[in-house]
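QA checklist item 7 of 12: single-chain prediction sanity check.
[x] sequence parsed
[x] length recorded as 255
[x] structure emitted
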Amino acid sequence: MQLAFQEFPAHAYLDKYYSYVGEENNAWLRAILEAAHTLDRAPERVAEVGGGPVIAPLLALCTVWRDAPRRVGFFDGAPQNLAEVRHWVDAAPQGFGYEAISNWLGQQTSSDITRVIELLRAATWEIEVWDVDQPGPEDWVGMCDVVSSHFFAESATDVPSKMVDYLRRTAALCRPGGLLVLSFMRRSAGYSVAGHDFPATSIDEHDLGGYLAQAGVELDDFAWSTVGVEDPPTRPGYDGMLFCRGRIRIGVAVR
């Protein structure tokens, strides 16, 4: 992973993107809720890959299931991101609150969001640094019922072949038949957080299938959706968001 991410401003990123639910987060969270509804209960093992400091996707999944997986793997390349995740899991006072997202999820799903948060925090968490230029954690590869990865592969590099590698290694954590849930900045040329500039590889719904094929990822029950950028005059570095989900095809190993 690029050295720039060792200076990734984790808390500023959370404040910038996750302190409210606008059009983008509304569409993003709805896509995750729809993915969660394809399972009838909380699975045994869920992994979040390249999650930065953000636990919102896991919280969204669990509000649908009204339960939490037994094991949660949270993998990212930047220690400061993982520190934010630990703060949330430990209910530390310096942790990011997710009040706006939690309230929205509770309203949309009629779940007892306080209870869902308790259950998710009580799961067995493995919060580990993973440089995705390297193979995945051995005891997680091919073992996950759900793999969730959002705004990671395309936002970690401006080299398309590397993005494909990151997609491959992310999907490889899924067991055959497991659910893969992905989100991307759409047509991004790079983005900024708290004065720090970061790279990106442009991807949209027209080339998504080609990139997944290059990564060796074959999905059944495939679905995708998009949303436009909510505030174009701010020039956020992308023109919208792209969401997709599907089940890893049985008999086709992702390597």
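[x] summary fact logged: The chain has one domain: 3-248.
[ ] second reviewer sign-off
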